[in-house]
Write a structure and sequence with these properties.
Structural class of chain A: alpha/beta
Largest interface: A-B, 41 and 41 residues
Strand content of chain A: 15-25%
Largest sheet of chain A: 8 strands, parallel
Oligomer: homodimer
Order of helices and strands of chain A: EEEEHEHHHEHEEEHEHEHEHEHEHEEHHH
Number of domains of chain A: 2
Radius of gyration of chain A: 20 Å
CATH class of the largest domain in chain A: Alpha Beta
């Protein structure tokens, strides 16, 4: 079994565990920095190593389109291409086809679209999504799904989740026919904000026996309270022995809340994208109560002469070596070094948040 | 004496030496990466350390305007501000006032200009230029000069060099009055492409007894042959016991040629700016004969699937960890990591070129 449950909290649904992948063991709950196109923007693999990132997330659609599978195959897989020796999870590409490609259209056997890169027509089938991820060498492969938007009628959500189930089955069949070994495969539960549809989707997918289950179609614009309701209704019914992945979440307090509702895995652009916009996170309260962190907008003029580190208790390369004044200066003069130093700090914040979360579960305070 | 001449070549005017600064000893001839605004664009001080850069060059005008002297003073000087513990040379700001500021006007006691940052009127005097560099904590302070453009009439060049001499004298007086210790101060020889004017400027400046002498007003658009003529006529007359700095030069073959004509110090945006445009340097012939290097435009489609390092014999972080295909991919998807990896490689090329040059002088082949 790739997932080992180590502890269940007595005061919430939070869990401590380990996930074994081809490229190493990951302590859960964990957060995955986003390396959409084969790099966490501005960071080298060495930077990620110094940050002790346990895993990164890359994108099937983007890498398939550019540089293309032939290049990555020639490089010996995505790990070698990007010089990253830790685990990689790849999403299926479905979400990106919808958000980025032109004239996309769902048909029974996949998604037709016109690429924004080469202008050519492509068809992403459930089998193709698995095949691409097989070639990339992903440690965790995601099934092709339709990510429903918010709001979404119940009728549409129901039809859509059934399509996602059919695709999940077809993809898994391909995975078994190709005798893919070691690379884990996860199914994606849909059903929008409707608890009964979420349960239907989950029970259809769990009968297929994936290595883990993701919750998709959340964090797509719905109020957080709706998301928490879905989590509350669905996680108690999810298999306890399999990892649970809440896709695209989220803000620090949302991650803590979702952990308390039984989630083990997260990914989000927030720390890295916000870093590039000069929005930085400072930990205030390691007990994770209330508003336990502070947001700092480094471009504000108040930081012009502030020679303190971003966070004097932070051990990241940025806080150990540079002041707020220097970081602000780099942003004001548009030096990409500023983006990198900010990204390093925010990822350090998120990765340490997860460490704090794991410690809190271990000591029984979460 | 801060400069120690170790060897003079028997077959050219090239020299081997050491320059002692407050922040360390520098082997000459050497190249200074450009950290205009307090950072070599895209690189951290740690990156510069890994590259074994002996020194960096920062800009008086830019740092004065932004973040301003108060901030740098508060940080404890430019070294602490940018977290760089090696030597720093700062140019005087004169060149930038001319090329960047609005409504600039030379008057007898300095340059009046409207700042492109705050829209305010400022006056940069010879004394002010020294004072700014004193506060920055520069290891090598440059005198305020007027950098004449190319072409330039002999009449203008003559009047201008006399002004540069008056400014040099005033700046040096300020330096002595302020009892500045340890920070070296260099004079800048002007005189455009006129050998007699260059000699006049040099003899006026050497009588003032600076720690070193720069040749300014070259590499401003004149044909390289004209620049070499000036070097050939002037370097034999320059004091042998003082370092000689050719400002703003240049291409690899120009640096080698200038070393052979007796120059010890160089700075240029070429390696870093070209890196950011995807133009990379590959060493072909360590004997430095003929076209001893190759230029590689990484964005060309021929590199799409080229999984070799940029230069298999290069020891830089980029060549040790990444392929041409990955670097091209980063450029195609506009990831700033590409700019950083390219900058690291090109600076490694330039710094190793200087190492090769020093070795060639040592072994008597240059």
């Amino acid at each position: 079994m790739p997932f080992k449950l180590i502890k269940k909290s007595s005061q919430s649904s939070s869990r401590l565990g380990q996930l074994i992948t081809l490229h190493g063991r990951i302590d859960t709950p964990f957060f995955m920095p986003i390396a959409t196109k084969g790099a966490v923007k501005t960071l080298s693999a060495n930077d990620l190593g110094i940050l002790k990132s346990q895993i990164v997330l890359a994108n099937t659609y983007h890498l398939w389109q550019r540089p293309g599978l032939n290049v990555i195959k020639k490089a010996g897989g995505l790990h070698k291409f990007m010089n990253w020796s830790g685990p990689i999870l790849t999403d299926s590409g479905g979400y990106q086809v919808f958000s980025l490609a032109r004239s996309r259209k769902i048909i029974e056997n996949g998604v037709q679209f016109t690429s924004d890169i080469d202008g050519q027509k492509h068809l992403l089938t459930p089998q193709k999504a698995i095949e691409i991820q097989r070639v990339l060498g992903s440690d965790i492969i995601m099934s092709l799904d339709e990510c429903t938007p918010y709001p979404c009628t119940k009728k549409y959500a129901k039809e859509s989740l059934k399509l996602t189930t059919r695709w999940a089955k077809q993809g898994l069949e391909y995975y078994h026919v190709k005798k893919i070994k070691g690379q884990l495969i996860f199914g994606i539960i849909q059903g929008s904000v409707y608890p009964d549809l979420r349960q239907q989707s989950m029970s259809e997918l769990t009968s297929l026996n994936f290595d883990g289950y993701a919750l998709g179609g959340l964090a797509v614009g719905e109020p957080p309270s709706k998301m928490y309701q879905v989590l509350k209704s669905i996680t108690p019914l999810m298999p306890a022995g399999k990892p649970r992945y809440l896709m695209g979440v989220g803000k620090p307090e949302q991650i803590v809340e979702a952990v308390k509702k039984g989630i083990d895995m997260f990914d989000c652009v927030i720390p890295t994208r916000n870093a590039r916009h000069g929005l930085l996170y400072i930990m205030k309260n390691k007990k994770l109560k209330g508003k336990f962190y502070q947001e700092l907008r480094i471009k504000k003029s108040v930081f012009t002469g502030d020679i303190r580190p971003l966070d004097s208790r932070c051990h990241c390369q940025t806080c150990q070596n540079y002041s707020r004044a220097y970081l602000r200066h780099l942003f004001m003069v548009n030096d990409p070094l500023g983006l990198r130093l900010a990204t390093i700090h925010n990822l350090s914040f998120y990765l340490n948040l997860m460490k704090t979360v794991r410690q809190a579960i271990k000591t029984g305070i979460l």
